[in-house]
Amino acid sequence: MKTQDITEVKALLSAPKKIVIVPHRNPDGDAIGSTLGLMHYLKHYNHDVTVVAPNDYPHFLKWIPGESTIVKFDTQRKTSEELIKNADILFTLDFNALHRTGHDMGDFLKHSDALKIMIDHHQAPDDYAKYMYSDVTMSSTCEMVYNFIEMLGDANKISADIATCIYVGIMTDTGSFRFSSTTNRTHQVIASLIEKGANNTEIYNQVYDTNSINRLQLLGRALQNLKVVPEYNTAYITLSQAELDEFNFKKGDTEAVVDYALSVKNTILAAIFIENTQEGIIKISLRSKGDFSVNELSRNYFNGGGHTNAAGGRSESSLDDTVEKFITILPQYKSLLT
Questions:
Q1: Torsion, Cα of 77, 82, 85, 86 (10° steps)
Q2: What is the mean pLDDT of residues 223-230?
């Protein structure tokens, strides 16, 4: 973020304001961690702050400090709209295009008179915010929130609650610190968060060691459905709505399942295709190794986007047709996959 922007934002925040913080639709650990971490920080200066999420999120994020205060746009529409309408400042975190909050909420945010501030690490940001802290090299939006607080001269204001929230997002978005976006700076931030009260063991257990028997059995079915396309070093998984229903699917149950496909020996590209009959779509998660850009693939063919090695998309075709389309695309990338 430019020095002048930081100076101006610091001045804006010098007196109490009505502030709304928004994550993307289907928020993950980085989205919830960054919004709640920023919320706790702003409350330190007596701002009237509310996190308004587009919709619900997985159960393994519902222990994070401050989570119970989150307002959900899809089920608390009137309250959400009032909060956004009356806001002086609107922070958008972990996304950079308003449609990522969903069609209805995106339109409402677009017409908000609040001053908008973006903090995000995804590629190709839209130009909707007055102040943009956008850096695709960062491990996570949570690491950027840490930097943002530090740039404001307030690293000493990071409490145990703030540290916990930020730790969650960095841990989840780096795959527990194993992705290439994890830098020496990331580890320095993590060390600081632990010093400030983040309990790394407890956080890991809360996020990763709370599996239900249904979730584990669904994982078993997903692995049974795993297919490999060896000539393109690609692996993919499918899950139909019937299979989700069989194992009493809950939001978050398929989190990181695509990583199992990517772990297959010699695999460069991995995908999971999940049927959602209620929304009439196939949800797609893509992962890759090295320089192969799933962000580009998703943008070009599946109405999505993300990072070079992690992206998402969607298809309105059937599950079988979507998989067939994916397979027919692979020859175009042969030189990059073999």
A1: -150
A2: 98
